[in-house]
Design goal:
This protein is α+β, with helices and mostly antiparallel strands. The chain folds into three domains: 221 residues, Beta-galactosidase, Chain A, domain 5 (Distorted Sandwich); 187 residues, Alpha-Beta Barrel (TIM Barrel); 145 residues, Golgi alpha-mannosidase II (Immunoglobulin-like, Sandwich), CATH 2.60.40.1180. 16% of the residues lie in helices and 33% in strands. It contains 13 helices and 38 strands. The strands form seven sheets. Strands 6, 9, 10, 11, 14, 15, 17, 18, 22 and 23 form a ten-stranded antiparallel sheet that branches. Strands 1-2-3-4-13-20-19-16 form an eight-stranded antiparallel sheet. Helix 5 runs parallel beside helix 6 and helix 7 packs parallel to helix 8. The longest helix is centred in the middle third of the chain and has 18 residues. It is globular and about 80 Å long. The protein binds 1-deoxynojirimycin (NOJ) and calcium ion.
Amino acid sequence: MKRFFMISAVLAATLLQACSGVLDINRVNISSPKGVLKVEFLLLDNGQPAYRFQRGDVTVIDTSTLGFTFKNAAPIALGLAITDTAIRAVNDPWEMPWGEQLHVDNRFNELRVSLVEQQAPNRKLDIVFRIYDDGMGFRYEFPSQGGLDTLIIMDEHTQFQLAGNHTCWWQPGDWDIYEHLYNTTPFSGIDALSKQNHPNLAQTYIPENAVNTPVTMKTAEGLYLSFHEADMGDYTDMTLKVFPSRFLMESELVGNATGVKAVVKVPFSTPWRTVMVTDRAGDLIESRLIENLNEPNKLGDVSWIKPTKYVGIWWEMHLDKASWDMASGKHGATTANTKRYIDFAAENSIGAVLVEGWNTGWDHWIGFDDREGVFDFVTPYADYDLPEVVRYGKSKGVEIIMHHETSAAPRTYEQQLDTAYALMHSLGVSMVKTGYVGKIIPKGEYHHGQWMHRHYQKVLETAAKYGVAVNAHEPFKATGERRTYPNAISREGLRGQEFNAWASDGGNPAEHLSVVAFTRMLAGPIDYTPGIFNIKLKPYKPNNQVNTTLAHQLALYVVVYSPIQMAADLPEHYQGQPAFQFVRDVGVNWEETRVLDGEPADFVTIARKERETGSWFLGSITDENAREQTIVLDFLDTDIPYTSTIYADGAKAHWDKNPTDITITKQVVRKGDTLTLMLAPGGGAAVSFIKK
Ligand code: NOJ
Ligand code: CA
């Protein structure tokens, strides 16, 4: 099958070339390496480029058109002809310096279609498809050409014509934040504008009935689809505008107050527009399509980037036990408190301590419009001795994680970038958490627009220069750039654990991470900050709580992927807790990942093998419904006995009525044994398999 499509395209290209330079063809097919998926590129009668996408006999995307509108030029949409087609088969495996797995298969067939406008200005445009067995990506490439220097893009018109009214897991297309709950509705029921009201954050702008990506769907045939993008480059975030009754989506790029979406210099390539398609929900999580569609590592030796668990002077601020600023009289980031956290980390195999509120500026951030020139990224508060805490930490094998809250005033941050990162470098600090709370200054720019993307990219590249890895909060969404810049170590970009401390809408529901695993997590690592043991948040927040059981919190260390994982609760809440042993033991860097089972918004069970030790860890979480999971341990190595410790919901466990009821049992297991796990409502299970 594969061979047929490849040969037919090549023959068409060579046999039919006309002297005008235009080929007398209007269709080209290409299929994936194993022939599972097939894309057809076609020119409609009016010369408009379009494509169709199939899995076997099932239409995934029906005829969908492609094109652009510009400010400084006529649209590119109609009257195009094919001048050339080129096909190649690529097999280019690579290794992740850190990640969900060590070895990555990267096998695809590529089709390049070169187009030209048949009338003046006769602009040229290539459309390139890369087709894998679990999905495909395509992008627009504007080659160098006379008379085309800069394009002011008013919008990209990439359509995705769905073949039915699929079940969708979606969140509103927001130009400022990704911190929304996911909704489960048929496609025809997507109504993003009804989600405008966002009580908890200052910044949010939802201009259209559109969805953020990744957006995930299930078809009537049982196929799982997920739409996203890869390799952002110098561009802007794509949301997908929804036409509910037509089952149609079209790219709606994030712009700014001028109405412009992106300004690009030719030659130029857009990000890849990606569609994953699998017949098992778990295969979406196992897919490495997004990273494969990015360029290889540009940073060379990145052995200085160390996956780690960490604790932080953080949750105590979200609980209002302490504050970021000093004037309140309950400043969290003091030298003494930091040393307390360092001691706790050292005693519990935790490699790092995040310290928020260490620098001046916190008395003038949230709620202020004049935030420029306020935060200072090199000057500690008087009660915080930065060199001393770094020294003390290093003496105990614990790193300090630096914190840069910019209050969404990126120009102030950029002015200090070099000095701030040089300071970290001089101290031997190799990780920073950044933050962008508030509306972007200058007014009229949005977190997810091109202007901000350039800022995030500048921060990432400056950080790499100084040997620093970045964990961005209020970030630009991940599009797989961690392959090219492995110092993009993790990010937020979802409703994190912190919402449970203060959200006025009841916090994250029990199903939250069972949806996140099949949506946001397909983009890349998540700094969710799991591990809250004091689930009811007493005595600090009597009206808030975490809506899961304790065993569910443990399972998140495996289910939610990040190479840096926080033990987010206060150290005193871990004292004397036998369940904390799982947090001590669990790995953060994986050789292999197996998604054993799962269904978006219901449950998910994942097993991962730790790189250095070969130990396996399993996490299983459920929504508000109790479930039984029977797990065949066929992922374990042959003939080796493992000691498994099972942290399971107790018989009376319930996310609300009895969240901390947990049982811990040990047994020796081998490959092929089965394990039955009972998950309580809002519950979960965490299992370690350590070689005896
Ligand atoms: C929002 C971040 O998500 C949170 O983790 C941080 O503590 C605050 N901003 C302050 O920077
Ligand atoms: Ca559910």
